[in-house]
């Protein structure tokens, strides 16, 4: 991204201003996604930040067209009158219908949604150009970055995110970066992807390290968000021994690190610790119903041991811990072949294939959008509470209802076909989020339909750009 125009824009530089109300980010370049040696100079989609007062300067018609189109896309402030010092009341637009920001002011995690969308929902990929004639990809050099908050030395934390190149991890990293912290990502890229965080590479606040948490790692940090572990059933069942090792040895290594450098440690546990629940909805006090020798055990029991380890380090060694039990989560950057129901249904619908329901489709799940989860994780990390907390959206669907919802959202007339139910597939799941509401002041803000809309758009963009 060449945002050098930032420096030269008059007055409201998005980098230096704390109130970005008058700042527009525009893409004034061409929208041609295929390239040849003649137009390589005109590499498309290089956004420029211009002073909004300068909008009328350009008399070139073509340029005007592309400006209008891209203004709608990148004008972070147009409809939202967002300020970096926004309060929680300013998360929604004035008509209360549109979400314009994410986060919570009490932990200073509020950032404009448009900034985040700029990296996960570009109309064309920012850093890649596919030449379909020669089947070659040009990777574009990013010269500058989204604006991050300027924090004092006291406020600025060094934060380690294990699994930070994965689906959830990369959204957490985006938010922590925009908040102004220093972020170190550890990932072995089994399910994570460099592209999920490539927009931060070479940023002075960012480091990406290829490392498997199964091996010890030493670094001075203030906080550790421990996410590293494959989360989709086909992925975690692919190599169950490795999944157990990741949960057990990976968590021991990260807890050992937290103990040594006195960092606060947050474990991302899962609703799967409740197994095939006999209590509904599931509160944190429920002990669960897990088959210890079934195909899901490598993940379910792995995470249960990870929780046991976390509280053992707390009691025995005084490690400062947090535990989030994450319920089904979806959003952009899910792996298209990750095998979970949301990405499966969306990809099948976009390709016009049959939607595959496992079993009779009467099993239920409750789906949360990824921004809500990131909000909850940051709140939990920064609150003084050590018991486990459920993070999920209690909006419960049968899988058959969910298939209908995706068909409507994608507007496809695909059929539904049923396949055998997986062994030990939980029959129902819904979080009791009373604790999160009372302790964190958190509840989901994203209606499932709205999150699905963004996710469908993400997969559409990826498909159009031939990136899947
Ligand atoms: O194509 C599909 C995929 C999945 N399903 C069904 O949809 C339901 C949800 O399945 P997913 O694979 O998305 O997720 P699961 O609920 O089984 O596991 C998830 O639980 C919570 C998280 O911690 C993990 O991300 C994951 O383990 C299951 O009943 C599954 O059988 C389908 O009907 N069709």
TrEMBL record:
Primary location recorded for the protein, binned into one broad class: cytoplasm
Extent of Low complexity compositional bias: 24-49
Subcellular location: Cytoplasm; Golgi apparatus, Golgi stack membrane
Domain (NAD(P)-binding): residue spans on this chain: 160-454
Start-end of Basic and acidic residues biased regions: 61-72
Annotated stretches, region: Disordered: 1-72
One biological process term in Gene Ontology: D-xylose metabolic process
One annotated Gene Ontology cellular component of this protein: Golgi cisterna membrane
Name of the protein this chain belongs to: UDP-glucuronate decarboxylase
GO MF term (any one): NAD+ binding
Catalysed reactions, semicolon-separated: UDP-alpha-D-glucuronate + H(+) = UDP-alpha-D-xylose + CO2
Family recorded in the similarity comment: Belongs to the NAD(P)-dependent epimerase/dehydratase family. UDP-glucuronic acid decarboxylase subfamily.
Superkingdom of source: Eukaryota
Biochemical pathway: Nucleotide-sugar biosynthesis; UDP-alpha-D-xylose biosynthesis; UDP-alpha-D-xylose from UDP-alpha-D-glucuronate: step 1/1
Keyword Transmembrane: yes
Membrane topology reported for the UniProt record: Single-pass type II membrane protein
Database matches in Pfam families: GDP_Man_Dehyd
Keyword terms: Cytoplasm, Decarboxylase, Golgi apparatus, Lyase, Membrane, NAD, Signal-anchor, Transmembrane, Transmembrane helix
Cofactor(s) recorded in Swiss-Prot or TrEMBL: NAD(+)
E.C. designation(s): 4.1.1.35
Biased composition (Polar residues): 1-23
Keyword Transcription tagged: no
